[in-house]
Amino acid sequence: MAGLSSQHRSSRHGRHAAHRSGRPVMLSIFSKPKGQHTKRGIDRIPRLSHRQSGWLACILMALLGGLLRFVRLGSPRAIVFDETYYVKDAWTMLMTGEPRNWPKTAGPLDLPIDQIFAQGHTSGWLPQAEYVVHPPVGKWCIALGLKLFGGAGNPFAWRAATALVGTIAILLLCRVALRLFHNLPIALTAGFLMAIDGLGIVMSRTGLLDNFVMVFVLGAWLCLMGHRDWARARLRQSWAKDRADFRLHYRVKVIQSQGHQGQESRVELPVATTGPFIAWSWWRTGAALLLGLATGTKWSGAYFFAVFALISVLWDGWERHQAGYGSWLQSAVFRDGLPAALLMIPVWAGTYLASWTGWFLHGDSYMHSWAAQHPGQGLTWLPEGLRSLAEYHRQMWHFHTTLHTRHPYMANPLTWPLQIRPTSFYWQKLTGFPGLCGLAKDSPCVAAVTSLGNPLTWWLGSICMVLAIVIAIVVKHGDWRIWGVLAGMLAGWLPWVQYMNRTTFTFYSIVILPWMILAICYVVNWLRQNSDSILYRQTMIMGLTLLGLTSVFFYPLWTAMPIPYDFWRMHMWLSSWI
């Protein structure tokens, strides 16, 4: 007994020592004692590093979202909304190099071309090049999906590229949130909200362009945050080195401490140097390239380029100031801003111009010969090819700025964050009782695809966007992270206010979804830091559970699952959703 007691005390002492040393008890149990040998595989348990576990968790969250996007991706087997343009354009680009016109009807029964196309008869295009009003990058991405997954005869292939980039966007948002808040649970919260959001799911399951814009700008924002972290580290290293260099002259500012007579603090700022050159980095180059791809998908990517570049330069100046360098505003303009512009603008513009390579290579592309046919017109100082492209762009600009055709699902941009008027992509009455319709045989059977975000997520995000601004200004008296939250709203939503009377749709708001979620995460992060930990965890569990159940409830309406009409009607919380 004495031996057992002694052994017990020794074991207990060892555990207490492990606690005092900061080592987990579990690790001490599996550690190899001195002079003893343990079985192979037990003496050392491999552990993931903090960085590895962060990546693994974000990837698993993205896989969850991918599952919601790829399952039944080929349903419905019908052209959905604007797939009539982009899928067919992508197919003819893949087959002929350029978009081609299609007849309105085809076949011996003179059926609509979309119906014929969905049935697998995909070779009925006309030889004439089509007038398209969006640049080609997004359609080439759809074409890649068609190439890899069986061609236009397979509806899964129509949407494979959008589903893939929608899944990648979840991973990117996780990484953005992790860089902003340095908290893995909050980063996973961001990924979870993105994974289960209805607009994110619908846009990933439909062959449209907007998902590509979203993933390109989100990737660019992650790159610019990487540049910020790189520049911050470089500035602090340089400041420590410059401060130790007594050849530099300093301006010394003496500050009298309040309430402590005779005590004063000295702040030393170098005037002989303004710090290292941080305008260029591979991060910033990558961001410019991705923003060029976004603009090469839809012109709205140009707004993101302007806003993101400005915020990135302001961050450079602010970090220069935070590091301790003087004349930071002047340096932000001349040492950071102008060189950054000289780097980013050519990369961005060059990427955009390169996206039109196919147009240049094919002599029968739309308006390719306009300059030769109209000598002395247009921008005559440009070579013929560029002059034709410039005139084509002028016509595209005219189309976009004068589009006022009424549509039953058009939505004022001011209503997008509240999802007041979602777009009905697909609605079809079905015969028989497939799917969930068997549960209510007294009700008609329908299938729908409605581009409605999780309403609770969007409503909460709208509230948190306002709260985040208040917290950053009033509570924190300034916080650089607020720009990480506002950037996408300033670039992806605010510019549309100038087109209040233009034909626009709520699904355009997919580009601001990541930043609506970041607004929620900003407020959640503040609550984490300023509330009781138990209350915070309980609130998070209940909130995420409620949001998850809401997505489960709406999922059939996002994925064309056969459901009873009465069940569909239950989802129409607002009359404007019908």
Structure write-up:
The protein is mainly alpha-helical. 58% of the residues lie in helices and 6% in strands. The chain contains 21 helices and seven strands. It has helices at residues 2-21, 25-30, 50-70, 83-96, 113-118, 137-148, 155-181, 184-196, 198-204, 210-244, 282-295, 301-323, 328-354, 357-361, 370-373, 384-401, 455-475, 481-492, 513-530, 533-558, 565-570, and strands spanning 105-106, 111-112, 250-256, 264-270, 423-430, 445-451, 563-564. It has a three-stranded antiparallel sheet. β1 (105-106) and β2 (111-112) form a beta hairpin. The N and C termini lie far apart (79 Å). 40% of the residues are buried.
Q: What pattern of helices and strands is seen along the backbone?
A: HHHHEEHHHHHHEEHHHHHHEEHHHHEH
Strand order of the largest sheet: 5-6-7
Major β-sheet annotation:
3 strands, antiparallel
Unreliable parts: 1-39, 251-271
Distance between the termini: 79 Å
Average predicted confidence as pLDDT: 89
In DSSP terms (H or I, runs of 4 or more residues), the helix count works out at 21
Structure described in brief:
It is built from 21 helices and seven strands. By secondary structure, it is mainly alpha-helical. The N and C termini lie far apart (79 Å).
